[in-house]
C-alpha cells in the first residue's frame, strides 16, 4: 500500500521533495502552502491545499494531517514546533529540514509523547542531514577515532560580487547559521564556539576555498559522539573573502543581533543579493584516528552541480530528505520518538534509489 505523505511548503526545496515522491508509485503526496501561486503551480501534478495565512500557532493542520502516514515540513524553523505538535496529535511521523538548534530541541521534547512506530526526525536535508550520516560512518574505519572535520558549502558557480556569493536557499536560515552559537567538541569536551570564527583555507581539485564556524550543521552528533573523539567541528565552505565581509556585517554593524537588526539584514540581503540556480554543493569529511596505534587520515568528498532545471542545493537537499524518509518509513527496525540522522547507515543511504545524485557526485572514496 502506498504511503501517504504531506509536504508543507512548496517552495524550491519543498516543491522538489513533493515532485520526487510523487514520481514514485509507493507514495501518495499532498502538498500545502500559504501561497496560491505555489499551490496552483503543483495542482496539476498532485493534490494541493492552500494553508491559511494565520500564524502557525493558530493554524489548524488537522484536516490535512488526518489519515496521513508522515509529514515533511519545508517551512521556516519557527513554524516547525507547531507542525510537530499537530503531527503528534494525528499519529503522523514527522520530518523537517531545519538547521535551528532550538527548534530541534523543542521537537525532541514533543517526540517524547510519540506512539509506537511514530518517528520524529528533524534536520533531514544536506547539513544537517546527509553530512551527519556521512561523518558518523567514519567511526568504523579506526580502532579509535580522533577527529572529524565536516565541511559543506552551497556556492554560486559564477560569483560576480564582492561577497563571492549569491542566495541559493533560505535567507532566514543563512542568517541564522551565521549568527547563532556553534556546537563542537574540543579536547574531548562539548563546547560552543562563535560563528564566523575558526577560518581556514584549503583547496579541492585546484580550487581554493575558505571555511568557518556556522551553527546547526552537526545536528545530534555532539551528543552521539561525546566521549568518543578528541575533536568534532562543522564549518561552512565559501570562496575566499566572504567571511571577512560577513564579520563586518554581523559583528561591526551588529546586524546579527536578534530582533530588528536581523530583520534589517534579511531585507538587505533579499533586496540586494541576487539569487541563482547556477550553483554547486561541496561536501567534505576529513577524519583522523588510530589503527594499530598509528595515526591515520581518510576522507570522502562530494561535488553536486546544478542542472538546467534544478539548482544543486535543491537536488542535494531534496534527495537527502526523500532518501531519509524512504529508509525510515520502509525500515523493519521498530522506532519510536526522536530519531537521530546518524542511525542511518551511509552505504544504505547511498544505495537507495533516491540517492543517485550523491552516488554520481563522489570525488573520492
General description of the model:
By secondary structure, the chain is of the alpha/beta class. It folds into 2 domains: 169 residues, NAD(P)-binding Rossmann-like Domain (Rossmann fold, 3-Layer(aba) Sandwich), CATH 3.40.50.720; 181 residues, Dihydrodipicolinate Reductase, domain 2 (2-Layer Sandwich). The chain is 32% helix and 27% strand. It has 13 helices and 16 strands. The strands form 3 sheets. Strands 3-2-1-4-5-6-15 form a 7-stranded parallel β-sheet, sandwiched between helices. A 7-stranded mixed β-sheet has the order 10-11-12-7-13-14-16. A two-stranded antiparallel sheet has the order 8-9. Helix 1 links the parallel strand 1 and strand 2. Helix 1 packs across helix 11 and helix 4 runs parallel beside helix 5. The longest helix is centred in the C-terminal third of the chain and has 18 residues. It is globular.
Short descriptors:
single chain, 365 residues, alpha/beta, Rossmann fold, Dihydrodipicolinate Reductase, domain 2, 2 domains, 7-stranded parallel beta sheet, 7-stranded mixed beta sheet, 27% strand
Chain-wise SSE layout:
Layout: E1 3-8, H1 12-22, E2 27-33, H2 36-42, E3 48-50, H3 62-65, E4 70-73, H4 80-89, E5 93-96, H5 101-111, E6 119-121, H6 130-136, E7 144-156, H7 171-179, E8 182-186, E9 189-193, E10 200-204, E11 207-213, H8 221-224, E12 231-238, H9 242-252, H10 260-272, E13 279-291, E14 294-305, H11 312-329, E15 337-338, H12 346-351, H13 356-359, E16 362-364
Parallel strand pairs: 1-2, 1-4, 2-3, 4-5, 5-6, 6-15, 7-12
Antiparallel strand pairs: 7-13, 8-9, 10-11, 11-12, 13-14, 14-16
Amino acid at each position: 500500500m502506498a504511503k501517504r505523505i504531506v509536504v508543507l511548503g512548496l517552495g524550491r526545496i519543498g516543491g522538489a521533495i513533493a515532485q520526487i515522491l510523487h514520481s514514485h508509485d509507493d507514495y501518495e503526496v499532498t502538498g500545502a502552502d500559504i501561497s496560491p501561486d505555489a499551490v496552483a503551480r503543483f495542482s496539476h501534478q498532485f493534490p494541493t491545499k492552500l494553508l491559511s495565512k494565520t500564524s502557525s500557532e493558530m493554524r489548524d493542520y488537522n484536516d490535512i494531517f488526518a489519515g496521513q502516514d508522515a509529514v515533511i515540513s519545508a517551512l521556516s524553523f519557527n513554524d516547525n514546533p507547531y507542525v510537530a505538535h499537530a503531527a503528534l496529535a494525528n499519529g503522523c511521523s514527522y520530518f523537517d529540514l531545519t538547521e535551528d538548534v532550538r527548534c530541534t530541541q523543542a521537537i525532541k521534547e514533543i517526540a517524547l509523547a510519540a506512539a509506537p512506530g511514530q518517528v520524529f526526525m528533524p534536520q533531514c536535508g544536506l547539513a544537517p542531514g546527509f553530512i551527519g550520516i556521512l561523518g558518523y560512518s567514519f567511526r568504523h574505519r579506526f580502532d579509535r577515532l580522533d577527529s572529524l572535520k565536516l565541511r559543506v558549502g552551497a556556492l554560486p558557480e559564477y560569483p560576480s560580487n564582492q561577497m563571492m556569493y549569491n542566495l541559493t536557499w533560505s535567507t532566514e536560515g543563512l542568517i541564522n547559521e551565521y549568527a547563532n552559537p556553534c556546537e563542537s567538541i574540543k579536547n574531548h569536551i562539548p563546547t560552543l564556539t562563535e560563528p564566523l570564527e575558526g577560518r581556514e583555507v584549503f583547496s579541492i581539485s585546484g580550487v581554493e576555498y575558505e571555511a568557518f564556524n556556522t551553527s546547526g550543521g552537526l545536528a545530534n552528533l555532539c551528543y552521539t559522539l561525546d566521549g568518543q573523539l578528541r575533536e568534532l567541528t562543522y564549518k561552512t565552505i565559501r570562496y575566499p573573502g566572504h567571511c571577512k565581509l560577513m564579520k563586518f556585517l554581523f559583528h561591526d554593524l551588529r546586524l546579527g543581533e536578534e530582533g530588528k537588526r536581523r530583520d534589517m539584514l534579511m531585507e538587505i540581503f533579499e533586496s540586494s543579493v541576487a539569487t541563482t540556480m547556477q550553483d554547486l554543493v561541496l561536501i567534505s569529511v576529513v577524519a583522523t584516528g588510530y589503527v594499530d596505534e598509528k595515526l591515520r587520515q581518510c576522507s570522502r568528498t562530494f561535488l553536486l552541480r546544478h542542472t538546467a532545471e534544478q539548482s544543486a542545493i535543491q537536488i542535494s537537499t531534496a534527495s537527502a530528505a526523500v532518501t531519509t524518509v524512504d529508509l525510515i518509513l520502509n525500515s523493519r527496525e521498530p522506532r519510536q520518538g526522536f530519531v537521530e540522522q546518524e542511525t542511518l547507515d551511509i552505504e544504505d543511504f547511498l544505495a537507495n534509489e533516491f540517492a543517485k545524485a550523491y552516488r554520481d557526485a563522489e570525488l573520492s572514496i
